Amino acid sequence: MDRYRRLYETIIRQTDREDHRPWGFYEVLLDAPDHKVKRFTVYPGARLNYQRHFRRSKHWYVVSGEAVVTKNGEDIRLKAGQAVDLPAETWHRVRNPGPAHMVFIEVQTGDYFGEDDIERAEGDYGRA
């Protein structure tokens, strides 16, 4: 019984750190005054909202799967081990075109990381 309790507690701790969305989920790995690091998992066929930020830049590194990053209207295909930089004020989104979960690491740099520094142009989930 202790084995099941430990497993249950491990699952609960992991899920508490994850922020689940319709497209998948993310976990904040580091939150410092001048940078933030997140790990994203995007479900097959799903994509994030098309958006931009004014006070932060992003660096996306694909860990597994395939990604199509839209950067200012241009699609860029990435596979595991490849990355893209998204300077502040760049319109961007990511889509998972593959049959399995796609995972990427996001490093944000800037002077502010609040949710109110997001301008959405369009989205699939009613938040544009």
From TrEMBL:
It comes from the Bacteria. InterPro entries: Man6P_isomerase-2_C (IPR001538), Mannose-6P_isomerase_type2 (IPR051161), RmlC-like_jellyroll (IPR014710), RmlC_Cupin_sf (IPR011051). Residues 14-122 form the Mannose-6-phosphate isomerase type II C-terminal domain. GO terms for molecular function: mannose-1-phosphate guanylyltransferase (GTP) activity. GO terms for biological process: GDP-mannose biosynthetic process; polysaccharide metabolic process. Pfam families: MannoseP_isomer. This is Cupin domain-containing protein. It comes from Desulfoglaeba alkanexedens ALDC. The lineage of its organism: Bacteria, Pseudomonadati, Thermodesulfobacteriota, Syntrophobacteria, Syntrophobacterales.
